[in-house]
Amino acid sequence: EAGVTQSPTHLIKTRGQQATLRCSPISGHTSVYWYQQALGLGLQFLLWYDEGEERNRGNFPPRFSGRQFPNYSSELNVNALELEDSALYLCASSFTGLHGDFGQGTRLTVV
Amino acid sequence: DAKTTQPTSMDCAEGRAANLPCNHSTISGNEYVYWYRQIHSQGPQYIIHGLKNNETNEMASLIITEDRKSSTLILPHATLRDTAVYYCIGAGDYGGSQGNLIFGKGTKLSVKP
């Protein structure tokens, strides 16, 4: 069974640009969760999508947004990038509501 | 979601059992205890979860006290590859009503030769 996959692995953007990160959940999973992990810090919850709807979001500004597609894959968009957005962005999926493994993440660097 | 308390760091000799404690005195009756680990710069890896009963899988065992206020993750024969930060999280279905898991600072386990 393929795990959660994320792309790209690494992404370098300039301050002010937009970044798009992608996540494919485990087959059969309908929920996708996004987390941010800045260097040396813990995981911070960003967004939760379930059945195509945004169910909850963490304490992040509106320039962090996303969507979930009919095939349950998901996109995270970060607009007007700031230097402090540099972080590892992680995605997890679930079916029953109990989290399983995370993907390996996208390392976003804003210069 | 339940607040959890874990030691900042622990050492374990290779081949010995690693016992990682976690206090979750505010856990509610419908909240699970999850354990994850994160090896440097990788995504968190699910280890095990439990509600009331002790649980065992191919990776570890989870011992939950009868009052559910604390638990211990046991890695029976630690290897160098088990060196990681281990997170104990209390949350209900869908990660609790808010859908997410709240990761604390975890325990840095160092397995030494």
| Proportion of helical residues of chain B | under 10%
Largest sheet of chain B: 5 strands, mixed
Task: Specify the structural class of chain A.
Answer: mainly beta
State which percent range the strand residues of chain A make up: over 45%
- As residue ranges, the low-confidence spans of chain B are none
Instruction: Provide the gyration radius of chain A in Å.
Output: 13 Å
- Estimate the global geometry of chain B from the Cα principal axes: globular
Please, could you describe this protein's structure?
The complex is a heterodimer of chains A (111) and B (113). By secondary structure, chain A is mostly beta strands. Helices cover 0% and strands 50% of the residues of chain A. Chain A has strands at residues 5-7, 10-13, 19-24, 31-37, 44-50, 53-57, 64-68, 74-78, 87-94, 106-110. Chain B is 0% helix and 44% strand. In chain B, the strands form two sheets. A five-stranded mixed sheet of chain B has the order 1-9-8-3-4, with no helix packed on it. Chain B has a four-stranded antiparallel sheet with strand order 2-7-6-5, with no helix packed on it. Chain B is globular. Chain B has strands spanning 9-13, 18-23, 32-38, 45-50, 55-56, 61-64, 70-75, 84-91, 107-112. Chain A binds chain B through residues 4, 31, 33, 35, 42-43, 45, 48, 50, 55-56, 58, 88, 90, 92, 94, 96-105, 107, and chain B through 32, 34, 41-46, 49, 93-95, 98-106.
